[in-house]
Amino acid sequence: MKSLAGFFVGMVGLALAIFSDVAFAAATECSGVVTGKVVGAVVVNDGDVCVLGGANVSGGVQVNGGGTLIACGSTINGGLVANGAAELLVGPEEIGGCLGNVINGGVHISDTGPGAPPGEGPPSIGLENNAIRGGVFLTGNAGTINVATNTIAGGLFCSNNAFDLGDEGRPPNTITGAITCTFE
Fold first, then answer.
1. pLDDT at residue 33, rounded to an integer
2. Enclosing H/E stretch for 62
3. What is the C-alpha separation between 62 and 69, in angstroms, rounded?
4. Hey, what's the torsion of the CAs at 41, 32, 34, 86, to 10 degrees?
5. Hey, how many other C-beta atoms are within 10 angstroms of the C-beta on 7?
6. Cα angle value 36/37/38 (rounded, 5°)
7. pLDDT at 4
8. How many whole angstroms separate alpha carbon 26 and alpha carbon 76?
9. CB of 161 within 8 A of CB of 123?
């Protein structure tokens, strides 16, 4: 009986390894402009600048350390995860003609770099004009963060960021759920 259980555990492990590789292989590495339908995830790596312009991503977006994401008028199914990104501008009004996005899933942003000094350029994180259908978690980010005119269904949670959130004096966010962030 023990050998049958061991065989079963081994087969499950093998299946997980195979399917994990398949899921990663289905990811689209983004360095440049991506539009239209993207089957699977989008991954932004160190040194890459990814612009999602009217894209429809079916598997979420992951921004790795040193990557930059600009998203305008896109739909992201599966959420957005960034750890150590250089900069994230998701629906920023500062970029002329940039429309907000629909994000079906949570947004988890941690350890983003400092970006431009406060008041001297775009924020290191800009979440503006988006419909986010999941919680937003901002943790340990070094630069300025603007969160403005979003509809967030799932709460807004902050911890250990270098700055309080800014809203650029624009209309407030509509947030369903808890809020642990402080705005300037």
1. 97
2. strand 61-63
3. 9
4. 50
5. 10
6. 120
7. 37
8. 16
9. no
State pTM to two decimals.
0.85
Sign, CA torsion 28/76/63/122: positive
What is the predicted pLDDT for the residue at 26? 64
Structure tokens at 109: 């942003």
Give the pLDDT score at 120.
Answer: 82
- List per-block mean pLDDT (blocks of 10 residues) for the chain, which spans 184 residues: 37 32 63 96 98 97 97 97 97 88 98 86 92 98 96 98 92 95 93
Question: Residue 62 in contact with residue 43, Cβ under 8 Å?
Answer: yes
Q: Residue 119: what are its φ and ψ, rounded to 5°? A: 80, 0
119-137 residues labelled b (16+ CB within 10 A) or e (exposed): eeebbbbbbbbbbbbbbbb
For residue 181, how many other CB atoms are within 10 A of its CB? Answer: 19
The string of DSSP letters for 90-107 reads ES-TTSTTPPP-EEES-E
Q: How many Cβ atoms are within 10 Å of 27's Cβ, its own excluded?
A: 16
Q: What is the dihedral of CA 41, 46, 50, 56, to 10 degrees?
A: 10
Q: What are phi and psi of 6, to 5 degrees?
A: -65, -40
